[in-house]
Design a protein that fits this description.
Mean pLDDT: 81
Low-confidence stretches: 100-104
Order of helices and strands: HHEEEHHEHE
Shape: rod-shaped
Strand order of the largest sheet: 3-2-1-4-5
Distance between the termini: 91 Å
Strand content: 5-15%
Structural class: alpha/beta
Number of helices: 5
Length: 148
């Protein structure tokens, strides 16, 4: 028995309500499980550049260390092999430097360590200890870029 003789068959519809419910649950899940990172702002005071200070070059003391553990201060080889002897040589280098004027000696001299790549760690530590004993706080290491 076909009671719908004159009617066309009804087209199927997709029920969107369960689909929307599932998406809403997924959105809530993502909102709950997401961690929000807080970016804290640091209160810092940036340094101010002063053109007059850049004109004054600090006194430099070059300390070279070769692979055998020999030391040279400002291209003058020294016989000292321990930190105390190096400290005396560094103090003497400060006093006898050509930049030993009042302007250059007012600033703390910079110790530049030029260590050979094959030099032992202890020889470099001896230079650091000698600089500490001589009262030199500004120390830097010289390096070269790798050849390509």
């Amino acid at each position: 028995m076909n009671f719908r003789k004159g009617r066309a068959p009804a087209e199927p519809e997709i029920n969107l309500i369960p689909f929307i419910d599932v998406l809403l649950v997924i959105v809530i899940f993502l909102m709950v499980t997401t961690t929000y990172s807080k970016f804290t702002a640091l209160q810092i005071t940036l340094p101010v550049a002063d053109a007059e200070k850049a004109l004054q070059q600090p006194q430099e003391i070059n300390v070279a260390v070769d692979a055998r553990g020999n030391y040279a201060i400002d291209n003058v080889r020294i016989a000292a092999r321990d930190a105390a002897g190096l400290a005396e040589a560094l103090t003497g280098a400060i006093k006898s430097s050509p930049k030993g004027s009042a302007a250059a000696s007012a600033a703390d001299p910079v110790v530049i360590i030029n260590a050979d790549a094959m030099a032992t760690h202890q020889t470099v530590i001896n230079v650091l200890e000698a600089a500490r004993q001589a009262g030199l706080a500004k120390i830097t290491f010289a390096a070269q870029t790798a050849a390509k």
